[in-house]
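FAD-binding PCMH-type domain-containing protein, pasting as requested.
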Amino acid sequence: MEELRKHLEGTNAVILTPESDGYLESIRRWSDTCEKKAAAVILPTTTEEVSLSVRFASNRQIPLVVHNGGHSTSGSSATEGGIVISLVRMRHVVVDPARKTITAQGGTIWEDVDKAAAIHGLATVGGTVNHTGVGGLTLGGGYGWLTGRYGLTIDNLLAATVVLANGSILEASEQTNPDLFWALRGAGQNFGVVAEFVFQGYDQTNEVYAGMLSWTPDRLPQIIDFVNGFEEPSNTGDQGIFFGFCGTSIVAAIFYNGPRSRAESYFAPILSIESTSNSCDMIPYCELNSIQNPLATYGGRKSFSGAFVKLPLEVSFFQELWADYTDMLRTYPESARTAVLFELVSQKQVLSVPKNATAFATRGPYYNVGCVFRWDNPALDQTMRVIQRHMMRKVGERAGAGAHARAYANYSHDGRAGEVYGENLPRLQMLKQEYDPHNVFKKWLNLLPN
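Structure tokens follow.
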């Protein structure tokens, strides 16, 4: 550690070791399963300090990971005995209202971006849970409530500042280092530390209609009937619904980017169903990405997984899935906070970008299923993961999009690179050999496992 301190001498970077005040907080993660005892946690404040930190670990072949929001349940932002570069002190956001751009440091969370952009009447496509890290969500693709209008988060990424494994600092955009920029958009965690993002912003001065609803399980057929009409011409890209199971209820988060009258008209079929709770109202856009936060709190043991589905969905299948889900809750009562959500936002803008235009290969006429298993007893770790894998495999086989649809990178925490990147994998592996030949960045969907 003395060598590391000397290496960073004269900088504002903080080094935390197991004996330091603040160390335990620095290794805390969204899931308790991902808290590992790092030998050191470095908290840089500038791109140059990130570069020095990466160079130190890389030159000495010390295992290295990057921490932003810490939501990955694969453990990709944690290390046992290695070095963590935690970007939590790099959360500055600059908005250029004239150019409608949003520049965010690598440690920002979506709440930072949403609030800073709102001051200038702007928004961009960001995470639907606002304490998620900007870096992780963006580099894996990024879906949000505004995807129906503007596509994926990576489709709105204009430029990035990247620290490579050798410590060099590169700018990446369509004009500068375009190969690296291509790889960053979908597989970025494998290529370096992104110290700064520049996003396209859009006018968002109006309030939006949004909130959470819950129903008793017998209302499931009516919910499915509404959802199966999601792709009708009345869907302008301004609406979305995430629905599924949590606890003993059928739940949904709904969104409409427009006035109350149009929103309540569009969602009338489900708003008219007797609910057990309803928080829907007009709210500022900058509050929208907090409505699902109660389903995604810190603490406890978690595993995140996912699948793809196509419409129409069969009521009988959902009733069978609900039976499997409630059987698990009865057998393992501590899993009662587990949530399975089918996430419907229009894919029209996503599909307007060719699959090979970015590293993100899973553009298709299908929708994400996000599945967060939650429990407390470490002895159940393997059991919960096995049940989850079985459930998501069943969803994919019964309601899925077929063999051509693989897995969304940000929901594929136990997946393999080939499943996520498909036909884009060979090019990614070639670029990996160029930008990170020693495979320093490998904890997230390892591109060079051999």
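Note for the archive: The first helix runs from residue 2 to 7.
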